[in-house]
Amino acid sequence: MKEPNDVILRSVTKVAVVIIFTFSINLFFSGHHLPGGGFIGGLGFAAALTLLFLSYDIETVRENISLDFKKVAVVGVLIAVGTGLGSFLFDAPFLSHTFDYFDLPIFGKTELATAVLFDVGVAMAVIGTAVTVIMTISEDR
Amino acid sequence: MIYTILLISIFFLVLSIIAAVYRLIKGPSIPDKVQALDAIGINLIAVVAIISVMLRTTAFFEVILLIGILSFIGTIAFARYLERGVVIEHKRSK
Fold first, then answer.
1. Where are the transmembrane segments (chain B) (predicted)?
2. Can you tell me the distance from the alpha carbon of B94 to that of B92, in angstroms, rounded to the nearest whole number?
3. Residue B77 lies in a domain
4. Which of A41, B23, B33, B68 is at a distance of 20 to 30 A from A72, taking alpha carbons?
5. Domain spans of chain A, in order of start
6. Chain centroid to CA A122
7. Which residue of A3, A5, A6 is the best one to mutate when testing the B interface, meaning the one whose CB has the most B CBs within 10 A?
8. Does residue B90 sit within a domain?
9. What is the average pLDDT score of chain A?
10. Yes or no, beta carbons of A20 and B69 under 8 Å apart
11. Is B56 inside a domain boundary?
């Protein structure tokens, strides 16, 4: 009985993971005017990590990405609440946001919004929660 | 004219999804069910693409990519479960 190997799966994963990471970052930044945003960007990120866990194993991925994903979730929730509380500094209601147009060197005229900071928190919370759930389920003992 | 053609093709795609759902519920063995799930994903991609042609918008292309990625990962997870019995290995076997 030949021992099963997954050379094809691992070769495809090496290419596809890069594409999925890039796509989820694009989805994250397009979330202000187009479909996308922090939640679905984080889910795409978690999907790419799940693909890595599937084609390799937990030990190998943890050696290379040595983040504690529970802490990622906690930090994300703190960032999201903190940006909401930050609007109190300017006498504005909770979670109100602002935006302005800046001239950046490469991108030209760019719209920068404070809602992106809130979205960073949401994305980190989603990534941390999803990856923690998947790793907890997959443990045998 | 083209609108009618697109409506008819959506109708047939929905028929195909219904047939796949029947196979998903009734399927005699587990590989049949997995293949039916994959076929449902592919038909969903086709329906979304046809709808984005009908509405003349590019806003749904990300939906297509996302359904493709999630369907791919789901199929891989089911295939690993069927072949190895374990979805995510804790330590590399060799």
1. 6-25, 37-55, 61-82
2. 6
3. yes
4. B68
5. 7-138
6. 8
7. A6
8. no
9. 85
10. yes
11. yes
Count of domains forming chain B: 1
Residue A92: enclosing H or E segment and its boundaries? none
Identify the domain containing residue B6 by its residue range: 2-84
- As given in the structure block, the two tokens for residue A72 are 């990622």
Report strand pairing: A108-113 vs A99-104.
antiparallel
The two tokens of residue A95 are: 């979670």
> Would you state the pLDDT for residue B93?
56
Q: Is the pLDDT at A1 greater than 70, yes or no? A: no
Name chain A contacts of B63, Cβ cutoff 8 Å: 35
pLDDT of residue A101: 81
Asked if ipTM goes beyond 0.95, one says no
Provide the token pair at A29: 């930044």
Exposed, middle or buried by CB within 10 Å (0-12, 13-18, 19+), for A44? buried
The residue assigned the tokens 């990962």 is B73
Closest CA to A72 of A137, A17, A123, A135: A123
Answer yes or no: is B89 within a domain.
no
Q: What is the pLDDT of residues A51-72, one digit of tens each?
A: 998 888 888 888 888 888 889 9
Non-local CB neighbours of A73 within 8 Å, separated by 6+ positions:
A124, A125, A127, A128, A129, A132
- pLDDT for B68: 92
Residue A38 has pLDDT above 60, yes or no: yes
Q: DSSP alpha helices (H): ranges in chain B? A: 2-26, 30-54, 61-84
**Inter-chain residue contact A58 with B92, CB threshold 8 Å:** no
Per-residue model confidence as pLDDT tens digits over B47-78: 999 999 999 988 888 889 999 999 999 999 88
